[in-house]
Amino acid sequence: xxxxxxxxxxxxxxxxxxxxxxxxxxxxxxxxxxxxxxxxxxxxxxxxxxxxxxxxxxxxxxxxxxxxxxxxxxxxxxxxxxxxxxxxxxxxxxxxxxxxxxxxxxxxxxxxxxxxxxxxxxxxxxxxxxxxxxxxxxxxxxxxxxxxxxxxxxxxxxxxxxxxxxxxxxxxxxxxxxxxxxxxxxxxxxxxxxxxxxxxxxxxxxxxxxxxxxxxxxxxxxxxxxxxxxxxxxxxxxxxxxxxxxxxxxxxxxxx
Length: 256
Prior knowledge:
CATH topology of the largest domain: hypothetical protein PF0899 fold
Largest sheet: 8 strands, mixed
CATH architecture of the largest domain: 2-Layer Sandwich
Structural class: alpha+beta
Helix content: 10-25%
């Protein structure tokens, strides 16, 4: 970990520090420059509060920093040793006021919960349609249609379709299986993409699932009863097929 003093904490300062960490931690092997793929940024609690309430909400700030790291590495021809990068923001009382500390490390490629396929371009027109699965079990599909005449570059893999399986619903419930191939919000409110309107344990806007940097990411949306993945409370996590997601106690299975 390394510290840095600033009169104010801003995303731009964190970006510059992330650049320095990548430059300092790069290792050259077999003609490639490898850099860490995980970055945990620790801030003094008051600075963390300022950053995530005045500048950007925590999830959006982390997404912005992750994208910045990805683009900077691409511009410098760096390779992430364990898969696509992720940046987390955390508060820590051991960090001095107006300082920041960054823990950078590489996830073991054999243990990283990362899918390497990049996402294709998708049309803005969305569709919701019904289908059938497993001999008559109802399925709801939430998807996006590819652009007409779209030609995918050689070697580029299509964005995978994911499924949420409500473990507490009967097989003939049309909402038991919900398939999607776009970013979705999940919750009790009718303005979500994935709706569990009768589940009082689920918040109105409970979580969001996105496909970015070749992987599925889940973000808790400050839900009342919290989100657990495989029994562990999370605010942000990379999903892998077979994960059990608890939405305030209502369990769904994530499949790809």
